Automatic annotation (TrEMBL):
It is found in: Membrane. It comes from Seminavis robusta. Pfam families: MAPEG. This is MAPEG family protein. The lineage of its organism: Eukaryota, Sar, Stramenopiles, Ochrophyta, Bacillariophyta. One of its GO terms (cellular component) is membrane. The chain crosses the membrane at residues 20-41, 61-81, 123-147, 167-189. Gene3D superfamilies: Membrane associated eicosanoid/glutathione metabolism-like domain. InterPro entries: MAPEG-like_dom_sf (IPR023352), Membr-assoc_MAPEG (IPR001129). It comes from the Eukaryota.
Length: 194
């Protein structure tokens, strides 16, 4: 006999609602989002040294574009992590009914697609804010720290999303990752208004 909570349909419905998460979860994410890049810059892990072309904005943009290559690590890992859930066919990847018919757990297919889609949406917010900050001449070390922290926090998001007991832990990763976009926006503002 199957428990009601073990049903894939019930799992999907649990994701749509439920009680509000504790405020500790997003506050933890925000704290990590501010603390990790600060620690990276202050510990000199993210040094400001790079080839100088005589233009701080050009150097900063080049350093930012180089660091954005780390996002490809995230997307490659997501491809491999989600491949098992989307392994049978393209149709099964987008239809829970087709996934169930092919013997897959439709909840895992939907979950893998949601995680991947959220990574892309988050990157579409980070990328322009990081490049804008770099073009304004912001400190390249801070931008690189924000971009690399974003990649790590997106993995935290995935782990939180896959948490069987409380999927709201994904909010920690979301808050921490989106804080990086706010940091880049602040860097842009600071560089644009000296």
């Amino acid at each position: 006999m199957t428990n009601k909570s073990d049903s894939p349909v019930d799992k999907m419905n649990d994701y749509k609602g439920g009680p509000l998460p504790s405020p500790v979860i997003p506050l933890l994410g925000f704290s990590l989002g501010v603390g990790v890049p600060y620690a990276l810059v202050e510990s000199r892990i993210m040094s400001g040294s790079h080839a100088s072309s005589g233009n701080d904005a050009v150097d900063s943009v080049l350093a930012t574009l180089q660091s954005l290559g780390f996002a490809s690590i995230l997307f490659a890992a997501e491809f491999f992590l989600g491949a098992a859930a989307r392994s049978t066919s393209t149709k099964a990847s987008f239809s829970p009914a087709a996934a169930a018919a092919s013997g897959q757990n439709p909840f895992e297919v939907v979950q893998a697609n949601r995680i991947h889609q959220n990574h892309i949406e988050s990157f579409c917010i980070l990328f322009p804010s990081a490049v804008a900050a770099a073009a304004a001449g912001a400190d390249a070390a801070w931008i690189r720290a924000a971009v690399m922290s974003w990649v790590g926090f997106r993995f935290v998001y995935r782990l939180g999303y896959c948490n069987q007991n409380n999927p709201f832990w994904r909010i920690t990763g979301v808050a921490a990752a989106q804080t990086q976009s706010v940091i880049c926006g602040w860097l842009w503002y600071k560089a644009s208004n000296p």
